[in-house]
Amino acid sequence: MREGPNYVNPMDFPNTVLNAPASRASIFCKAKGLNTTISNGVTSSIDAIIYASDFLRMGRARAVVAGGVHGLTHDIFWGAHNSKILAGSRNGTLEISSPFDKRRNGMIIGEASALVFLETLEDALKRNAHIYAEIKGYGTAFDPKMSTTKNYQIEGNKRAIIDAIKNANLTVHDISCIYANAYSGVYGDIMETLAIKDAFGMKSKLIPVTAIKSMTGECFDASGALQTIAAIMSIRTNTIPPTINYKEPDPECDLDYVPNNSRVVPVKNVLINSFSRLGNSSALIISKYKQ
To answer: For the domain bounded by 69-287, which CATH number is listed?
Structure first.
């Protein structure tokens, strides 16, 4: 501000705007079709996959690469630290990512890039592609009252989950496991537990719920794509990864969180849950492809 506009290097602009990663990738690949950047915080990459799926269903594209990227910067780190949402940012607390565990006290920030290749079933069959999974349904919601503080509301996230199940023409009994958004937040993990319980009813106690952010950290815009890829591998291997660092159960988080060890079970339909601190919620259901 002191130096004025002349202080800014104009060549920095193409590399710092939000759509720079997608644009650079398209230039590198010489891709001249759809190029869109969605910035919805933690739900960004799930929303990108949903957006790409709609593009395919409307016949406006035959194949789309969708996902998200998050790079850790000093500004992000210190902003989170000063907001007291980082693990260990309060005096005397552990620096640990332990979703749903009573000891949780904040997130560990991760860094990632994750992409999935989407195409219509017709095109996949034409080229004899190996189909890892099928996008079955999705739901999105925004609740301005939703928060990850002690004043949290669950309606927005619950609505996204219910809408995804309906959109997939499934019932709660068809869901094999849930990939939770849980990032080791003091109140966010409770909010998600209550949203799942309200959406699934009595079935919620029987469905495995895993939080891979216990291992990856909170990768913000890339988190949903990471969850999606992990869910695809669950379908492929019939294995649910664990929620690690789970040691002390929290009475307010009382579901089956696949603690500390992976679990081998049949996996057919996976619900991936995502929400941001500012009210966005998105849920995606992927399923094993049946020939």
So the answer is: 3.40.47.10
